[in-house]
Design goal:
Elements lengths: L11 E5 L3 H10 L5 E5 L11 E3 L4 H6 L3 E4 L13 H6 L5 E4 L8 H9 L5 E4 L19 E3 L10 H18 L14
Parallel strand pairs: 1-2, 1-4, 2-3, 4-5, 5-6, 6-7
Amino acid sequence: MPWPQPLLLNRTACIAGLGAISRELAIRLLPFGMRLTGVSDGRAAAPGFDRIYPRRDIAVAASEADFLIVLTPYSARTHHLVDDTVLRAMRPDAVLLNLSRGGCIDEAALLRHLTEGHLRAAALDVFAQEPLPADSPVWSAPRLIVTPHVGGRSDIYHHQVLPGIRANLTAWLQDPDGLLPDLVMRPS
């Protein structure tokens, strides 16, 4: 007899960082009947998202999620955004996915939580040190999927990127002092 398959229907995905990639991911998750929440200090609302939490409330957002997906730029403000406190707040059946930058996750804390069985699983495409050293404990962590920083690569990458470059170039040529689409403003 086949085993029951967990569905995405009625599950909650919390996406930390609400840039262009997150908005595209939301479009793809909604048809599965998922509830979407987000974490951002830059947006109070986004299409398809039921709720946006400020970054300071990421532990609360993570506690309500079946999947915590990290897609935020790396900066001093997002260093170890997902730390021991956030990991402790996550439910034991939750899954963490990091597709942003390695420094956004406290890897040592994540390895502890996976080893202790606190999280169902994690998937990392990025790491604090890249390439990932052969002797890294990440390689032997239980319930951890490791991919080699390929999340943004595809055979049609240039077709995906050129429209954004064209939009930014057009906006800049029309108004060099104006804002560009999807501009990330980092504090000085």
